[in-house]
Design a protein that fits this description.
This protein is α+β, with helices and mostly antiparallel strands. The chain contains 13 helices and 35 strands.
Amino acid sequence: MRSPSHPLRAVLVLALAAGLTTAVPTAMAAAPTAAAAPAAAPTVTEAPAPAGPASKPYMGWTSWSMQSSKYPGLNPDGDYSYLTEKNVLKQTAALASRLKKYGYEYVNIDAGWWRDLAWKPEFDAYARQAPDPGRFPRGMKPVADDIHAKGLKAGIYLPVGLEKEAYGEGKVPVFDAPECTTADIVHPDLRTTNGWDSAYKLDFSRPCAQKYVDSQARMFADWGYDFLKLDGVGPGSGKGGDNYDNVADVAAWQQAIATAGRPIHLEISWSLDIGHAEDWKKYSNGWRIDTDVECYCNTLVSWENSVDDRWDDTPKWTRHAGPGGWNDLDSIDVGNGEMDGLTKAERQSYMTLWAIAKSPLYTGDDLTRLDDYGVSLLTNRDVLAINQGSAPPARPVTAAGDQQVWTTKNTDGTYTVALFNLADGPAAVTADWQSLGFTGQATVRDLWNKEDLGTYKDKVTQALPAHGSRLFTVTPRGTAFQRTAYEAESPANTLSGNASVSDCGACSGGKKAGNLYQGGKVQFNDIVVKKAGRYVIDVSYISGDARPAKLSANGGGPTALRFPATADWGTVETVGVPVTLKAGANTITVDSGDDYAPDIDRIAVPKL
């Protein structure tokens, strides 16, 4: 795992020195109960996404990926020199002509628009960032006007807090607030904030602080901007503690935008603390859930740098996304081939995850030199419809490590099913219909290849290359079934090692089996099925971080699993695990081995 920082932090420091799953019904702990279909593929109401701010994930282009890259020719005048009016408007024209008709509409200007090539900042007479005349000689309003003239929306960027260089010994007045100066908007001890400590923390117990944010929002509205990325926000962005708690800043920006005279989408960044997910949902339209996807190398991104981190980091956030606010996985750089730094298989998997997770889709590629394959990824209408539709985000329904299946149930009763092979070599990946809540037959459509594959019985298996994927629409033609649930805390079970039963408000029986570490086990006894065969059992669990475990049936060879994080130690999620059972009574064991396993709520076995 890489550090969540990026070179902008170093540049700033140097410059300054110079759900979806719900709790299951309570059941008797000692007895098996009927269980519903897996929560991982919830049924949703047939309805279009409501209109309004961020009613669906936004789509567009961002300048940051090319600004940050050392790919030859992108930044000829030094780090981050790509950002200029000329380059922004060149990408605007390409977005309008090539991608606008597919829904891409935002042109987002990222960090540096108020700094020169040596990173020296410009501020107006009211401590607000002012465009650098070298980068944006006409100022920011004419750029927004030109973006709008193409039928697109304009976005801009700020770090959270009052930048240190704008303080001016506390004597700088605040616009439209003659009683306020910069000394009146920050803490008297000049404590620092944001992911780079590049700003003084605003003190919202002082009315002048809100007036300063109001003045910034009004400036952007007067310039005609439709989008603001507020960066370095905490808790998160690699920082913790009171200095880096910017919830009040985000709330102040929401209030300021409401009175600025122009709707502005508020996106906050980066790698935000999930413990404040409800705050981000309340005050913003989107929140970055991870570190920067860019590699800060001689390409835009690299698979190992942080693209592949998203498969581990996204699941715990899934329940928090929906109309009004979305989990932001960062830019989608899949259109330029060699400059992206990825194989074709990796580019497709990258786009697939972003689409099914319902992340905003904003590319950082050079839109003037998209290759044919990149265009096919960015403009596949079936895939874009998944991202923009009313079904909830997909999440994993397996705990199989590198071979993963993600799914969600669509409003028409079909399922979106993605198969991923995250291993460094080829491997087969299987989607079991039991994981979706039915058995028998289903028709399968390949969305990337726009091809009907026909009818499959019980499952579909695909051989995938390293870091490869497939994306299907699965239409059930088989039979739905119920499950029999077995609570982990049942006295019929056998606990060993450190394992113990404790209370759990989110769990189906009000309790769970925990302390499964370094040999701790829970063995479910008397798991009865009528017919021998392969069963995909649901395992409902709690795990604040991704954790391994071993699962075995009847003392046989264990299957090594890795359970996705559930966000915290009070949230239950469910994954499917295939096991072979004999007719009659069986045992199923969850074993921590030498590691730390998740807490277990219950298992549920299909009644086939």
